[in-house]
Amino acid sequence: MMMNLSKYIYSSIILLFVPMLLFSQIPKIEKRSDVGYQGPSSAEIDAMPVVATIQPSGNPESDIHNFQKAIDKASKIKGGRIIVEQGNYQLKDVRLKSNVHIRCKEGVVLMPRLDIESKSQLIFSVGRFANEEIKNVTFIGEGDFSNRPQFYYDRSIAVKCRSFTIGKVTNLYLENFSVFDDQTVFSTISLNMRKKGTSKNDRPKNITVKNVSIYDASYGYGLVQGNTGENVWLKNLQSVGGVTARIETHTGREHNVGVDNVVIEDVVCTQGKAAVTLQPHVVDNGIVTVNGAKAIRCEWGVMIKDGFISKKLDPNKEWHNGSFAKGSSIKNVTMIHGDATTISRQSKVYIPDSLLPYYKEDSSPDKEANIGCKEGPSIAAILNLASEEMKIEEETISHTGKMAEKRQLIVTKKVKRTHSK
Predict the structure, then answer these.
(1) Facing residues of 383 across strands?
(2) Least confident of 119-128, 386-395, 401-410
(3) All domains in the chain, ordered by first residue
């Protein structure tokens, strides 16, 4: 089974290839002073001892034990490297700890456990437990786009899958791996809070996610979801399906904990919802900037929704619509339109009348049946329902492709359409 699985994964790369920066070895950590990871450099990490070299065991209990034992050892000596050799590993609920630096060789495949029945399987977590104070964690893959490490999901194994569940951690760096999804539930990388967290002190800080791709993501999910976080840098990310970079601050809404200083650069989405989506709910967020977003046959290029008050919130408390801080901006967005993508039923009202024949009410393009999706045409480069909250540099926004002339470049409430059909 493992041999066939690897063959499937590697052949899929050819079918779903999207051009991207290639690596012939483990890439060096990239740092910038204003955002993202601020921990030890590549040179400093390379000087740390190798505490373990992990080999595939063919047994999930042994795989989990080997990973956790190596992580505990590296953290205990306050800094160590873990080398993961080529092969297939079945993992679940592996806890990353401080000063742990994992380097995965070419041909590593990480997947949920095959020997248990569980609707939800989370592979790695960091900083999610109440008393954890985690810092300086890196996970980097070796190899180029064709052979770098991969996460693999299958809905028949687990409907809900996630590679990294992230809570309170300072200085986390994730780079150079691919995720082969099966339209499972959950974004594969989630920036959350530690359990029972109530303040900004309980969220991730100094986070970099760079050169990561996901394939066959569900419309409602995708690659990275930033529920909370401070100093977050998302760079060179790709998604086939779903959303590449989603900033939706609902996890800490009861405590007004969201995001501050998020930089999104050079992200691409193909045949999905959008390259970037932004939604504040009831949280007052800091600045979010988008510089470089490309959408190919997607519903939107960038989607911005205004804040709203959920009915699930305590009705006895006073709530207000959330926002992103002044100074937030969007530029360099490219949209390439198509006539057959996955769109939300709620978006039908934004489709130009001339393109309504491409909307198929009887279609079900997503495996997550209750998500409310249909097949339809891409709509616009930007949906902006947040009035003047975001500065959009319109001269840097473009759209091309099938019947681009029939679409608006930027859709707002003011141009929302009422259809005769």
Answers:
(1) 303, 411
(2) 386-395
(3) 2-18+52-415 (2.160.20.10)
